[in-house]
Amino acid sequence: MDPVPVSDFETSDGPLAPGRIVHGIVVARHPWGVELALEEAEAFGTIDIRFISDDPADMNENRFPAVGVRLTARVQGIRMITEEEAVGRAEELLNALVRPWVDEEIAVNAPATVRTKNHWVIFYNTKAYLETKSTSHALAGNGPVIVSAEDGTARLASSATPWEDQV
Q: The whole model's pTM is what?
């Protein structure tokens, strides 16, 4: 089956429309449930603890299906991540890939954040530049962070091409 963009999921005939039966492999276990890599689309799904079993004894992380197990589930709904969640993912990426290499404090430029159909585009610079607009404090060559609104995956965009061409 060909991957389907998440933007097509919400239609009544989409592969992840509410009520549809889907299949996936458990890729992570959490106190609140399990995450599946879905076979019907390039997407992940979460099975909430309340839907794993009717037996309260099974509502225990130690009794959840193991990573690697194939499960069948019914889609309850689609949820895109919020701007706050996207900024959190961008901050994590900046902590890992930008802040260790820059002497000045880095800050997200929240008013410049853009929401496209399937992404959040989060701009950043030094805190001093955002406060003063003095180019002596500006970063050079810093493309924005692009965060998937579908699954929260964050990546640094290139500054060599417009961000619009990278979403």
A: 0.60
